[in-house]
Amino acid sequence: MAIILRLDRVMADRKISLNELSERVGISNVNLSKLKTGKVSAIRFSTLDAICRELNCQPGDILEYSSDEPEVITE
Amino acid sequence: MTQKNANVKNINTIGLIMRIALIIARIFVGIAFVLTLLGCILSLWMPVESVRIRPSIHMDVEYDEPKDGEKLVEGTKDAKWDIDEFSVKWYLKEKKAESGKEALSIDGEVEEITGSQIKGFLFKKCLIATLFCAAMFVALIFGSKLAKALEKCDTPFADDVIKKLVNFGKALIPLGVLSLLSGTTGIAIAFAVLILFLFVNLFKYGAELQKEADETV
Q: Are B39 and B126 in contact (CB under 8 A)?
């Protein structure tokens, strides 16, 4: 089971940088970078809400489930 | 973590105070260790027949007559008490006193103490004290390391702090054993060691929670 993060794809589509998004969302660059590279084990709804608001997207655009792909986030 | 939590800052301050206090304690314990070690060496060098002691004690005691009419001491009572290796004979005699008061004359006689007895006694006491000081010094060193880790940490649930806590707990064990054997504050130290290991497990659990919190954005 693996949840894959597509945040980098959505950020590229919206042409927004890591610094700018982190400032708008209200989390640090480091944490946003970890999120982008999938090095997190959990995400708060408040963070997801802020990201979707700033990127004008749905949670499903950022989070994808795949049972075939190797684990990106380990629990 | 960009800004430190207020509780973590308090822990850092407590760590600093602990470190300073432990450094001061180490100085005193170090001096005590040197003195007790010197005592051990001197007691070994002491010539066996250099001294003989025949101590005697005399006390005159006056106290208020017990209200219920019973006397504290009936007539004269001779007693023999042992203090360490020395045997003390006590002789009690009632004396005349003002009305409402009772008086006793107490004489204590210690059997002659030879130089070898004194030497043995001194060496035993100095050796126990030296070992105690050494164990305490080692415990204080590990305590200082723990205090430094708490002073510098960003979170008390870090691996480094837990490791130092475990080492401090282990360093207290010889102190506890020595205290138990010498019959002093052994029980208190034994409980302290148990509580410390309880805290170690609490901190390990805290570290797991900390990791989960750190990995949540």
A: yes
